[in-house]
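Forum: Protein Structure Q&A
Topic: Joint prediction for protein chains with partners

I've read a bunch of threads here and the consensus seems to be that you should model interacting components together rather than docking separate models afterwards. I'd like to see that in practice. Below is the full input, 224 residues plus whatever partners are listed. Could one of the regulars post the assembled result?
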Amino acid sequence: ESRGEMKDEL
Amino acid sequence: MNVFRLAGDLTHLLSLVVLLLKIVATKSCRGVSAKTQELYAIVFVTRYLDLLFSFVSLYNSVMKVVFLGSAFSIVYFMRYHKVVRHTYDRELDTFRSSFLVAGSMVLALLINSKYTFFEVLWTFSIYLEAVAILPQLVMLQRTGNIDNLTGNYVFLLGMYRGLYILNWIYRYSTERRYWQMIVWVSGIIQTALYADFFYYYLKCWNENRTLVIP
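Posted by a regular:
Agreed with the consensus. Here's the joint model:
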């Protein structure tokens, strides 16, 4: 499983 | 959610409370850059457009609404409040912030992870946030004696950025899928911009005298 961008920060 | 992220968000929140408190309690925005505050309003609007179509957590949504509301309240006070607007030091706040907006937009169009409308705007908000403090830092240099609340506001903003870097290190080492190069590079540049300010802030604090940025 590769690392992916996540938009869970503010 | 880890302790660094939570501390970072709360520090960010506290910085906005300190700034609003200064403006409301002293009926003055002396030393505060309206340009920086307007840039933050643009940053929040373009980043939190996802309030309309994606949900992460109640915490995230509430914080986004609070940040948007506080940014617009501050701009309202500085530009339109019948007493406060007269205390704004227009002649000290001369940074050409439109260049920051244009530069961030060009960069977001060139470097982004997906070429879509919302993704480009989100990337733009990341780049713009990195440099949005510049008009404020330049203004502090010109202001001379900086009052405690304004100094503490900028100090808390810098702390928030530093805590976010610790949050990224923590997440990178504990989460298998976590990766956000655009955010990391911009965030490190943003934090580095505070280095000079931190140096003088701590020096003056240590020597127990009023903050002056030479």
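Chain B touches chain A at residues 5, 9, 12, 50, 54, 56-57, 60, 63-64, 67, 113, 122, 164, 167, 176-180, 182-183 (CB under 8 Å).
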